[in-house]
Amino acid sequence: MARDQIDMTPLNSRDELVGWIEAGVKPPSEFRIGTEHEKTPFTLEGHHPVPYAGARGIGALLEGMQLLLGWEPIMEGPHIIGLHDVTGGGAISLEPGGQFELSGAPLDNVHQTHAELMAHLAQVREVATPLGIGFLGLGMTPSWSREDIPVMPKGRYKIMTNYMPKVGSYGLDMMYRTCTVQTNLDFSSEADMVKKLRVSVALQPVATALFANSPFTEGKPNGFLSFRSEIWRDTDNARSGMIPWAFEDGMGFERWVDYALDVPMYFVKRGDQYIDVSGSSFRDFFDGKNQKLPGERPTLSDWANHLSTIFPEVRLKRYLEMRGADGVPWGRLPALPAFWVGLLYDDTSLDAAWEIVKGWDASERQALRDDVPRLGFKARIGNRFLFEIARECLVLAHAGLRRRGRIDGFGHDETRHLAALDQILDAGRTPAEEMLEKFDGAWRGSVEPAYDEYAF
């Protein structure tokens, strides 16, 4: 997330919390596609982590990007921590370990997403290369320990760093060592939101397998194809997971609000200060019972910021966020929005996808999600391998994109952005399995070649 919200409108009723989310409803003609991707910076010489400070640090990179783009700087105290395009709506931000994130503008089609990505990467390279900085397109840093990685100067990350070890084994790994690509999509009504949420939660393991790209930890195979996905199984289960209640009768905006009210908070921001309220519920805050802020009630900013700290496989804010994919090299990034747009923005494909998943119960969905980080396409649900389901989904995505009929300047529709996924399924193995084969062969037991082959 590029920056925390600033709207001090006081909240007085639960209906206002529901209304804030419901305001995301829009007609299909106004549906947009938002793509967020993270990439790990490294020094071109030696492949080390990049510190924030210094003439060749992350801060200098952001300052150079500001001069190049003319975007508005996002500051925290004296530190530049991001950039915002006030015209187009895009933003650049920093994850805890310096992972460089582009939060793309809301765009009409996947061709525009691809063009935005290409422009961003050209701009980043123009500034980063003279600083001796490169970027890696993997789901997890392949060679560094947690202790190797610098901490970015953001107040919310200090609070999260202190809190994470209290609630899971892998929270710090998630914060400092992983990267993801996400797609954000719209809904036209409460019922449309529920259907899209259920389909995308159930099929998130398909995206995890297609984008599985984190098989190494500290220079060695870690036993997983997507260790980033495995990390989320023991990060903070009070705010992550497969949200089985979303498949129960009565699911809607109000049910999400009731869930979010009981998710533990991290912080409350007042001015430039982050107040540590970690572990307390938003419900108590809403009732004026927060021990750190006795008698004080939340604002719209507090609600929006709190929703940004909830991490299920699919997250609802004023749009739906698909959260199951590892970070990948640039050539595969547009495939994620193409996949989900083809499935969810075409009613025929959405109905067919629902037919695939509607018979799965909560325990089956959970077992699939638990197995896929290690097994990838070999995970099973019922009597079917995930590979079969992935093939079915890709057929539906192709059909949905064809029916959308968004044509680029060369006469191609959006299905061209699925080519990377077609190749993965044709090969019958995840990207991680391809890397492990290289590790055992041409890479001769070293992950160092990844910094060349999977660099942006």
Automatic annotation (TrEMBL):
Q: Which is an annotated Pfam family here?
A: GCS2
Q: EC?
A: 6.3.2.2
Reactions catalysed, semicolon-separated, are: L-cysteine + L-glutamate + ATP = gamma-L-glutamyl-L-cysteine + ADP + phosphate + H(+)
What's in the keyword line of the UniProt record?
ATP-binding, Disulfide bond, Glutathione biosynthesis, Ligase, Nucleotide-binding, Transit peptide
Keyword Cell membrane on entry:
no
**Annotated transmembrane regions:** none
Q: Which GO terms describe its molecular function?
A: ATP binding; glutamate-cysteine ligase activity
Q: Which GO terms describe its biological process?
A: glutathione biosynthetic process
Task: Please state what class of enzyme this protein is.
Answer: ligase
Has the keyword Kinase been applied to this entry? no
Q: Its quaternary structure?
A: Homodimer or monomer when oxidized or reduced, respectively.
Please give the family membership noted in the entry: Belongs to the glutamate--cysteine ligase type 2 family. EgtA subfamily. Belongs to the carboxylate-amine ligase family. Glutamate--cysteine ligase type 2 subfamily.
Its function? Catalyzes the synthesis of gamma-glutamylcysteine (gamma-GC).
Return the protein name: Glutamate--cysteine ligase
